[in-house]
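Memo to structure team: turn this sequence into structure tokens by end of day. - J.P.
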Amino acid sequence: MFSDVYLYNPTNELAIANGDPNYMPPKRLIQFEKDLSTLLMFFASSRDVVLVHEVPSEDFVNLWKRTGKELPTFLEENAALTDQKFCQQPKGFLYPWGWSPAVHKRLGPLKNGCSNEFKSLPVADWTENSRDIYSRKAAAGVLKKVLNVVGKNDWLLPEDKCPVSCTEIDEIIALQSRWGRVVVKSPWSASGRGIQMLRENEFNQSNHQVISGFLKQQGFVMVEPRLDKVADLSLQFYSEGKGEVAYRGQTSFLTDASGRYHGNYIREKPPGLSIEEISFLSTYLPVVRHLLQEALSESDFSRQYHGWLGVDLLFYRDAENSLRLHPCLEINCRYNMGALTLKLRQLISPESAGRWEINFGKPGKFNRDMTEQMSRFPAKIINGKIVEGILPMASPSDNAQFSAWLKVTQS
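Reply from structure team:
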């Protein structure tokens, strides 16, 4: 079998919004991409290639080999994409973190050598229609389908709380008057970026400036009420691009007060839920999973896209303190951190729990901290499964500012 090629490009939604094949992300996000470029190794097999900013250290590679993880070949991206011999070698599929006009150009030197199966996929070329399914408006369409199927109920997001597309500041202020606290989201963004949280009766100059920028750059924003969160959940699906979507698993994740992604819990549900909350999720999550799978299979996501679909859900309490589920907060039409968590879960003992996180710090801090933490909490691996300990998910270096690390604890 031919090698598949993986590339971590976490700014694909911004690249889609920009539309220019020559798009360059902001400097800090370029650093984010470089520092965490090994993350796609968790999806790759031993025959595959992961393009990275810097080939990881031998110590890092040997540590993950101890877990039983088959590791791919790591190639420095710029060298690989200018190596005629490598570019002309037959390949299977190309798997960037997410598709955009920019990554199509970036991986262009490899396309001719890809398999006919890859070339027949809906993601093999970028078209005018490609852009729409990556927007938050497409996710809102799936949400409405789910709510319409269920009809009147007391456990899902009410229809009058559904997100609304706005093209003018006055429309946003009107929704703020109706709902109180609102969240304003740019249509193409991810991981908590492109979000403005507005308090009740507050719309200051800073909010106006940022939201006006969203409207100017992307044409519209999605506005929704801010809900009283209990937990962030995610259901993972996979589209083969042939009209069907398969369910892959459930995860829970961490965000900060501004809604920015911080990390994932290893197990399906977050720790600390009450008996009432666990019972609610046990009753209704299987129903939502089925409804989402049907809605996605009937949507453009099943025909115009091939790859992972991470659907974020919000578990919350309404104004009467009753538990409810927002069944489709957004759809991550790409590789995503929930899908990565499912891959990590396969490497961890079923008797263990834990979480993994992404952090930011001064250059070299991750390297120093990880050396200390691995000394205090060394990885314990039994029968090819991680039982406990701390492991880096990106190769520590003196220049890295962003880090990803896994902490496993015995339950």
